[in-house]
Fold this protein.
Amino acid sequence: MGGQINYATTLERIKESYVQSGAVYGSPRITHDLRRQGERCGVNRVAKLMKQAKLKAYIGYKRRYFKSSTPHIAADNHLQQQFVVSEPDTAWVSDITYSVLGVQH
């Protein structure tokens, strides 16, 4: 029949697209990829098959913004942009680096 759907083939193509995307594509993008390959499918069917196969798009790192109830108090600028010191351990510098840890695909 013309309306017969081969779920196994569609699921394999979904998995291929999912892996190629680095596990970041959800059902809308995977549906678009499959349609470009000539597969006839809808977003809801792709979403259903992804859910059954436990394939979930990795959304990414989202920063959390919040407003503090108390104003921030900056430390006094004792160095006055003079970073050369005469004795060790009289001035310190720090840096804050944000990174996403523990990401598994």
